Description:
Elements: H1 7-16, H2 29-43, H3 47-60, H4 67-83, H5 87-102, H6 109-125, H7 129-142, H8 149-158, H9 166-180, H10 186-202, H11 206-219, H12 229-244, H13 248-256, E1 291-297, E2 303-311, H14 315-326, H15 332-335, H16 340-343, E3 346-350, H17 363-375, H18 388-405, H19 408-421, H20 426-442, H21 447-461, H22 465-476, H23 479-482, H24 485-496, H25 504-515, H26 524-539, H27 543-553, E4 569-571, H28 581-585, E5 590-598, E6 604-613, H29 619-628, E7 630-631, E8 646-652
Antiparallel strand pairs: 1-2, 1-3, 3-6, 4-7, 5-6, 5-8
Helix pairs in contact: 2-3, 3-4, 4-5, 4-6, 5-6, 6-7, 7-8, 8-9, 9-10, 10-11, 10-12, 11-12, 12-13, 17-21, 18-19, 19-20, 20-21, 21-22, 22-24, 24-25, 24-26, 25-26, 26-27
Amino acid sequence: xxxxxxxxxxxxxxxATPAQPAATPxxxxxxxxxxxxxNTAYSTRNCADALKLYDALERRTxxxxxxxxxxxxAVRGGICRIRMGDGEAGVAAIRRGLPTLAARPDExxxxxxxxxxxxxxxxxxxxxxxxxxxxxxxxxxxxxGIDRVIPLLALARTLSFDHDGRALAYAExxxxxxxxxxxxxxxxxxxxxxxYARVLLNDGxxxxxxxxxKDSLKKQGGLDNRVNLSEVAxxxxxxxxxxxxxxxxxxxTYLAYTGAARMEKAxxxxxxxxxxxxxxxxxxxxxxxxxxxxxxxxxxxxxxNVSPIYTTxxxxxxxxxxxxxSDWSWQPSDAVTIPVFWRQMARVELxxxxxxxxxxxxxxxxxxxxxxxxxxxxxxFAWEEQPAARALPLARAEVQRACxxxxxxxxxxxxxxxxxxxxxxxxxARPLVAEALTLAQATNAPVAVxxxxxxxxxxxxxxxxxxxxxxxxxILRRPEVAADPLSAATVRMMLANGGSQVRAAERTQLIDAxxxxxxxxxxxxxxxxxxxxxxxxxxxxxxxxxxxxxxxxGLSSDQCAxxxxxxxxxxxxxxxxxxxxxxxxxxxxxxxxxxFDIAADGHTLTPRTVAAYPPFVFGDAAQKMVTATxxxxxxxxxxxxxxxxxxxxxxxxxxx
Length: 656
């Protein structure tokens, strides 16, 4: 979608060059009136109404042989679909009508320019910047005078991270055209300057960018409590420029006046699913690479309009980190608590991840569930490959469909996915868990399948972690669970990893039971139990027993277990005293995700912020909290630090 800061320019361009109606043979008045109404809605960017009218026209003229009319309807409808977020359908519609209109370029210049811009936006939103550049250049070729500003800025945005001078040249031309136009208001000039300054920032000209942005702020009326999206963009960029120039005091002030991170009712919660691209040769990302990514968040928890704003790297870095954000998913009930205005242009600070992806303790149970589904002829759903927030409504629909059709196995699969997604809140989950357990019994599913849902039930029914552990104990008391080696071992290891709320004697008993189970000696749960036993022996001073238990795992001193126990926290490092003073004084809230290693003696090492909201505010404080945290010691031969790359997210929230 074209950015909100460009709307002033678009309005000016539309006023100067009204959309040309399609040149069609005389039609009945009612058809013409319908076409005129659709064009009016389209020209005022009322795409919801325009699409209804264009769709009705398409149905009404399905047998009409007027190619120009059909092409105009297809192109304008396609542009509206892209503006409303349906890029795939919009691109298809534009491609269908574009050749016919292109044959008459003088008559349909406005439509052709708008179509190429829309195709560029769709490609940009899909992270195909090469295709976006091609379409934006086509739009630029169709434009004259002030109409060139929009495609020029679109090209500058697309090429901002290439560092070859092209983005700056496009941005400079847009700026000069805007300054030379007497009918453009100061706010619009400021918006164009902000885009120009953003290119300067990415080219390393931080002082120049800072100067331009301060002038943009002046044109917008300075710092006041009135704010729109264009002003938010300028102030956020000013904060970024101030930080890069070492002016932290003004950076905090500018950020405060964006209004970001100052929510009255609830903080801007982090995503439930928030994966980051790995560092390394495969991605070309270095741990030192950092980017600021902007996005919009819908009521449905879906991320849209993802755009890299700044990076210390190149296009590859910007795109890799932006793509990761497009896959994030918020729980809808979290998303709706955030005011809509602040969800339209949220920004996060990101780096690549060095964390090692390790399965959870429940992974073997999940694999058993998948194997049973496969044996029942139930394949994975195609929508499972989508980001979780986009797949959630499809999963809900599948549950309803399968229930109505009596397809119990498919319903179980969909329910299992919903619980794993972490996007279903407790209110919705309670009846669904009960339904899943009923289905498991009705289908004679293995005990492991029912256990998987009973574990979900323990989380759903609890209000605090102690109650979750009590739920696990209740599951273990079920005769069928105790008799099933996989179910029993999974629940026991989940209890054993319950931290300080599980006493050493109970933990030892649980571990011994897992080791005595008929599971193969190389089973991941048994290896995890042996590592737990080694840790307990080392903590009691029995180094020989610790070495013996570790040797039985078959691991070398620098290898990770498939399912490794996480050391329990011995001392929390999070403290209100570490809340950044400036952030507290200005009422900032936010979060930061930090990756770190844990030494064998429980000290934390190499803390590194990989994600934070708002950018560059809470990362340092979160790293200090990690440094101050102590874990229980873990046994490793030669005191090696193995299985590095732990991660923790810290919330910074004002008292309410």
